[in-house]
Amino acid sequence: METPMTPSPKPAKNYSSSVDSSRPFRSVREAVAIFGERFLVGEIYSPKPYYTPLREETNAWRFLSPSPSYKSPEEDHHEVQNDQIFGTLKKLEAELEETKAELKLLKERESETEIALASLNAELHMNLSKLAEAEAAAAKKAAESTIAVSFERKKMEDLLKEEERRRELTVRMENFPTLAQILNLGGEQGSFRGKKERKFCSLANPKYTRQREESRVDSSIDMDLF
């Protein structure tokens, strides 16, 4: 509600119906007061019946004063609906902010989960690599053991074969004549062969027999001289 303004000093009465509108009015009350005063002054000097200026001014102010606000049921209903819509919007806005916060938290957890999965994946690959190395070492050791066993088995087989060959050679050597026997047999065969040769020569060449006899006699003489 506007505060009452002090009316400006009344202009000089020229009893004319014109109003100076070039000057701006400071308020509606001032304009109404000026126009009302001009109107009242004109009524006083007119042949019309006299009216009390105060009553007219009061009626004019009563007409221009704002009436108390009155709302129809429809307006009340619209206002209630607007309040409900506003409350719903506020609630939705709060839920939206809460959803944004939850989404941000989920993204952070997703990032942490991805980091954890990457770490677990790297650890798994490292363990698989170690397992493969251990299996390769075990396979190499088993292969070396197999080779060693095969080598030992082959060596044992070679030793057994060598021993068997020695036994066979020993048995064969036992069946063969000794060196003395071989030499004795050779001597006997040589003497027999010499006898046969001498006998054959004497039979084939009598001169050879006579020379042999002479040489034998000479030998006996020489032995007697000594």
UniProtKB/TrEMBL annotation:
Superkingdom: Eukaryota
Keyword terms, alphabetized: Coiled coil
Residue runs in coiled coils: 82-123
Start-end of Pro residues biased regions: 1-10
Region spans: Disordered: 1-24
The protein's name in its UniProt record: WEB family protein
Species of provenance: Populus deltoides
Lineage start: Eukaryota, Viridiplantae, Streptophyta, Embryophyta, Tracheophyta
